[in-house]
Request: fold
Amino acid sequence: MKYIRYTKYTGEAADDLDLQELMKRLSDFLLGSGYESQYSMYEMDSSSMSSERAMDELREAILRALEEGDLLPPKLMEQLMENPDLSQNQQLRELIDRLIERLEQENFISSQPPQVTAPPSQTPGGQIGKDQPNLNARFEITDKAIDFLGFKTLKDLLASLGKSSFGRHDTRDLATGVESGGASRPYEFGDTLNLDIGETLFRAVRRNDSQVPIEIDYSDLMVHQCEYQSSCATVLMLDCSHSMILYGEDRFTPAKRVALALAHLIRTQYPGDSLHCVLFHDSAEEIPLGKLARVQVGPYYTNTREGLRMAQRILNRQKKDMRQIVMITDGKPSALTLEDGRIYKNAFGLDPLVVTQTLEEVSKCRRAGILINTFMLASDYSLVHFVQKVTELCRGKAYFTTPYTLGQYLLMDYVQKKTRNIH
Reply:
């Protein structure tokens, strides 16, 4: 007689895995600068420098995350890792493909069919090359994934600082509001009508000589005062020249992490503030915050002046009490956009022409009331002297830090707004 044995269904391993923890483990891969070593720039073609990643690369990244962490039960991991070659281990490959499918279903990534675009000289603008079936499919991280990575980075940074939450930017001024924080004053047109009932009645009684019924006039109205909380417009200037990934250290990926954390902080804790992002390299460009995680290093030089000019144009459109530029860089200014549009470049030492024009742009920021805070990721004496000169001209702050402490200094500076230098 044939028997059928039934066992308790325990579910698929891929379905039980915590996707948020997996995304956290994949953050280095998803936010990568585009280069794995200081020499790889000479080995990569233009297609591999795309912000999109091949599915095979994603599978390898998930495999590394599974190997390094405790995402799966130990016994199952031991069984799967007997043969970590995805081309031969069908069970492991199916598990990873199921995880990729779940990431798509939860809108952390979106897969795209393989496409190739011909060079601009061969393809009219706006056209896309034909599909190539022999290429790997590609994927992009979604806005939800970017927001999640920003939240995780912010949470980790605040945990290291011992802070759980932040309020808004406090000033020494007083204004009318819901929360009382100072002595009452007479109501003026446009004030928040948060009446001080006791003081209003007292003025009315005193004016009417204790007559009943009490008649309240416009001049009797008294309102509570609260601490005036200002709004701030910030432009984050991010150096993406090749020096950010040279010398055996990736400085660009930590800078992107901090930028995403700052964007999340502003959106959730300071809804009245604004944040814009400007990349500067041979030239400068403004990018939407949603595309920040997909940005890679390049081109080569550092056109700090052009970045400052673009930041000023952005801030001049903002009607905020406070306007500031947060500049993250590790290199000296080595490029300059001339009046005719040509770019003057000199990577050897501090070029007097480039430095003079850059410092002149810093002076223009000061005259416009724009504060510049510089976060320096290098300690070369000449560069330190240049940053100190920038700080002196604009009366801002200079933070000489590392990629590991950048987030702590930047977030605390944004929240506290204290005048100090950290060396």
Observations:
- The two ends are 82 Å apart (CA to CA).
